[in-house]
Amino acid sequence: SPILAAKGGTAMADAVAFVAQVKGALGGIAGGGDSLDSAALGTVVELAEAQASAREASCAKTLETCLRTILCEYLSSSSGTEADEEAAWQRVSILLDSTLWLLGQEKVAHNAFMLLLEDLAEEASLTLCEKLFQYIETKKPEVLAVGKNRLYLLRTCNKLLKRLSREDNPLLCGRLLILVATLLPLSERSGVNLAGGFDIDNRTEFAELEQGCTDESGRLVDVDLYNSLWRVQGLLGNPPLILESTNWPGFESGLRRVLEAFDRTPTKQGSAP
Fold it and tell me: Which of 107, 198, 222, 236 is most buried, taking the most CB atoms under 10 A from its CB?
């Protein structure tokens, strides 16, 4: 009916105006420096409470929907240039920081921050995704591994890994997997081989080297390390073989040799481990 249509149009206009007001408040925070303006965020909460009261909805859900809408607007406004990407990330990082602040004030649900991360993993450019990863890697907010948020974290990381190329982005893929392993406990179900199955068909054949072998540049190869590494790799491809009496001594000594080599290998300061 015309009356219902008018009411629907009014509700939509109110929602658009509400999003614009919150976006304006967050924009003021971005223009005010790196520190969050609690007064401006208090204004955001007041706006959300008023909007939720008018719509007879929860404040947390109202804020969550608003924040995700603003994120989509931030992402769609970037033309892909380096300057635009940098400006977009500045706005996105303020949005993420603000969401964490609202979470600390118990104004949004525990999964609100995770939903923003998931949206970013799906819709943001790879440049922004890399900045997002650096943000998470640096801050490591506790909310990432709380309760069901672990599932959101895994889902977000898997979506991001699917978008990344292991050939073109090997370092980022590795750092992403290390971050997940750091945040989630060893007992995490997704990281446990519950069925005890192994892909024994995926084998790497190698020829053992003899002393005096050189690489393509003419440098001598550490033959003992090379052979030890690939012997260990061959056994790890089918772990039950490790426990056989004929294989265990060789596996133990080979693994010790490989780990000692890793310990002696210097890493660049500031690089990923």
Answer: 107
